Amino acid sequence: MQHWSEYSDPALIRSLAAEIARISRRPARIMEVCGGQTHAILRHALDTLLPPRITLLHGPGCPVCVTPAAYLDHAIQMARQPGVIVTTFGDLLRVPSASSGDLYGVKAAGADVRVITSPLQALDFASRHPDRQVVHLAIGFETTAPANALLPVLARERQLDNVSLLVSQFLVPPILRAICTDPATAPDAFLAAGHVCAITGSDPYDALARELGRPIAITGFQPADILLGILEIVRLLEHGRAAMINAYPRMVRPEGNPAARSILETVFEITDREWRGLGRVPLSGLSLKPDWAAFDAAQRFPMRPVEDPPPGEADCPAADVLLGRLQPDHCPHFAIRCTPDTPLGAPMVSPEGACAAFFHHRGTSPP
Ligand code: SF4
Fold it and tell me: What is the number of the ligand 1 atom nearest to the C-alpha of 346?
C-alpha cells in the first residue's frame, strides 16, 4: 500500500472487517489511546463494521482533555500579568479552568494570548519583543514533547532570556498501567498511537504488553490502519498471547526517532504528573531538568496555588469517559447540557475529544 488513498480503500476495509468477524470468537474490549484515532473510528464508523462482541473504548489520548484544570488557571494567571505573551495551540483556548474561566475569555478581555501552530513561533515573538516575556504552554504526549524541548535549547543558543515554558507533558505507558490497575474495568487490549511510537519506538511497548498481560497493536490513523490493528489484536486475544504487534511499520521503528529521543533526554526528566479528572499518576509526565530551570515559567512567575477538583467530583464525568467506563453518548449531559457550543468538560471542547467525536460523527441524540 503505497498511497494514502489505498488505506481508505472500501474493498480493503471490507476484507479486514470480514477477517476480524471470521476469527473473533470471544468478547473483547479494545481501547485506543489517541484522540486522532478516536475521531477516525467515529468519522468512518469503523466500530459499526465490527462484530457486536468487540467493543471499542476511547481512552485518555486527547492531550487537551487530560491537561489539569489547575494548569489552565496558572496559564490564565500568566496571561493576566502585564507584558506577558502566552502562546498556545488553539484547542486549549476554550478548555475550562478550575476557577478562572478559560483562556478565550482572558484573551477577549485583552490579554495577549496568541494561537500558534509550532512552538518555535514563540521564539520569533521573543526575539521580536525583547521587552516582553513569552510563555509557551507546553502540553501533550510524547508527540509534542520534542518540539517543546527544542524551544529552550534554541532560546539558549540565541541568548533569548525572555521565553519560558509552562509544562504539562504526559507519557502514555504509565497511564496504561494506571488503567489496568482495576481489573473490573481494564480493557482486554490496547491500540497504541503510531505517532507516539514513532518517537519512542515500538520496543517499550513490547515489554509493556508482557507487563500488562494484554496485547498492544501499534496502529496508524487511516481506516485500514486501524482495522489492521484491531485484526492483530483479535488474533493475539484468540491465541491468548500478551504481545506487541507493530501494525504501522512504515512509520514506527523499534528504536523510534533517535534525534527526538535525544532532545527529550537532554531537556526533560520523568516526574509524577496530575491528569485532569484522573488525579496524580506516578512517573507519568515530563518536567524540565534542573539545568533548564531558567526556562520554567512556573519558577519564573509567582503563581497562586490552585487545586484541581478531586476526581469524580466535577459535574462532568469525563474521568469515566477517559478510562473507558462510560461511552460519551451515555453521559447524561451529552447533547443536552453539554455540546461543543456549551461544553461542560474538555472532551467536548477539544477537536480530539471523544465526546466531540461522538457529537460530530455519531449524531447528537443520546442513545
Ligand atoms: S458529554 Fe460533556 S459532560 Fe459528559 S463527559 Fe463528555 S464533556 Fe463531560
Answer: 7
